[in-house]
Amino acid sequence: MKNMKTLKIYSLLFTVSLSILSTASCTKEDSQKVSSPDKNIQLSAGIKDGKMYYTVSRKETEVIDTSFLGLTLKEGYLGENLKIKKIEHSSFNEMWHQPWGEESSIENKYNQMIVDVEESDEPKRNFSVVFRVFNDGIGFRYVIPEQPDLKEFTIMDEQTEFALPEDAIAWSIPWDTEYYEGLFKPSLVSRLDTICTPLTMKVNEKLYLTIHEANLTDYASLNLAPKRNTTTLKAFLTPWSTGEKVFANAPMQTPWRTVIIADKPGDLILSRLMLNLNEPCKIEDTSWIQPGRYIGIWWGMHMKKQTWEQGPKHGATTENTMNYIDFAAKHGFSGVLVEGWNYGWDGDWSANGDQFSFTKAYPDFDLEKITSYAASKGVRLIGHNETGGAAQNYEAQLDSAFALYQKYGINAVKTGYVNPLLDHKELHGSQYGVRHYRKVIETAAKYNIMIDNHEPVMPTGLQRTYPNLMTQEGVRGQEYDAWSADGGNPPEHTTTIPFTRGLAGPMDFTPGTFNFNNPVHPQTHPQTTLAKQLALAVVLYSPLQMASDMIENYENNPAFDFITSCPTNWAKTVVPEAKIGEYVTIARKDRDSENWFIGSITNASPREVNLPLSFLDANASYKAHIFADGEEANYKNNPYPVTITEENVNSSTVLTLKQAPGGGTAIMIIKE
Ligand code: NOJ
Fold this sequence. Notes:
Elements (H helix, E strand, L loop, with lengths): L3 H11 L3 E7 L7 E4 L5 E8 L2 E8 L2 E9 L1 E3 L8 E16 L7 E15 L6 E9 L2 E8 L7 E7 L2 E3 L5 E4 L12 E4 L6 E2 L2 E6 L2 E8 L7 E5 L5 E6 L8 E4 L2 E2 L2 E7 L2 H6 L2 H4 L15 E6 L1 H4 L15 H14 L3 E4 L28 H10 L3 E7 L4 H17 L4 E5 L14 H16 L3 E4 L15 E4 L7 H4 L46 H10 L4 E3 L13 H6 L4 E10 L3 E8 L5 E7 L4 E6 L9 E8 L12 E8 L4 E6 L4 E8 L1
Helix pairs in contact: 5-6, 7-8
1-deoxynojirimycin (NOJ) binds next to loops.
């Protein structure tokens, strides 16, 4: 693990230039241009009818047509009657190291254009829009300096537009989907309702776009809606309960609005634009931030075999936890999550979040004994803080809770906010929620605690700045395969989310269910084969990843080898093939060895995949361990058959993988 010291040297070596290339004072109301470093993407900005606009093209093809910018303030519209005051161009190029991630290092290379504008008449308020153009897309944000007529203000609406020149297919969920736990559905952009970002669109076979945001700080999260019967998408910010969107003080800057521009779906997954538009790491020493795979006292509660609350079926007992610790130590898991360890779970807890204590354990859970036993076995206890949405109750206990966990060697906490409203009032994605989640992450960093945030605000790449923000839910995860009335996540869900929610950052989906029998809801189960459960451990990226099942369901199953061998931290990621909603194959190189891991999955249709291993080192020999769907396997009624074979491979090998309906293939490739 690199610490901050190494980090600084690293970026010093690679920072090439940050220079002002030209500064022009413009009175002419014409458009100004900035291109990507490879010149393929071109962005123009200017003033039309007194309003600021931008357009984007790629290799002469229009990607975004004239799109206007502006903010509706309570204090009067900001964005009309404008003239350009100044344009400033600069370039930037650096490589930065990620303490964890899908790649060790990331290139941050862009050309920037800052357009300063001012109202033509008194009070002549001014603001800037900063545009950055990367080889894989664009980002822009509003910057509002302090000025006599703009000190404290309220944003009622953001008028930012993304005008698509033609209709496209978009995969989306409604903006108010509870906790973003929805099934992304394809539809035409012009037919969309109000949806949340990331919004991924296929314009044609050679053009894919994802609109999202980066560095959501003290603002409201971004949603989009098409303007009536058009293909122009307009921003809609998640409101406060009182209707305002953002309470602001100048100087202020909005989050970045981002558009990834890609030739093919796999390139969307490889874009690091969102991370590049977040601030560099603020944590001095990151050596305590450790990715890993863990198990949990968890699935048993979702299957109603155990309870969160005290009683005869209580899951979080000292004895049960010690069994889980033994199992984790035996199989090399780094941690054990325990839910239901603390007071507050009785009755309707999600309505009465104020009853939760984050320091007081139930009497049958001996925190001291358990944590010292875990330490003796080289395993960490992972804390759980379900708040029932009572953010203020949680904030009041944050310091004492995190100090306690630090004392007992707990360095990761899963947080949860099961209630459609925070503090019975505000939406998770509102400025209120954004402020709360940030406070938790920053406080956790002070106590060397990693966070796995369930029921979050949609992620925007904050883990670059606070790499203790490991992973988040905000996705319809494996738990739906335990109790969802519709039978569980359909096969195309996992072939879609890598291109939608997955582009917002790591997903705590928790793949790895081995026993599909469901005594409570017999019709509900993972709609995958067992081999696909393995493949999901690679496909669905999360630096902290839980193997979802109860430990007794893993015993003596040879397929479990893949779960225990698969890392959660990568040096490199490639996407050899992908079709949104249909199939995806992802290969990742382990951060700590020369080995590669591949996950390849399909929707309900069976597939035969020819997979060239050209990403392997030339002239090296490897052994592939292939976990594939067995004879007659299918997700509906025969999920279990898995064949495990070995094959000598090298960079010129083309593997043929046969996948069952709802199936997949998991492969580890060990360098010899
Ligand atoms: C919902 C979370 O997603 C799940 O993982 C957790 O077990 C329950 N809430 C209880 O906190």
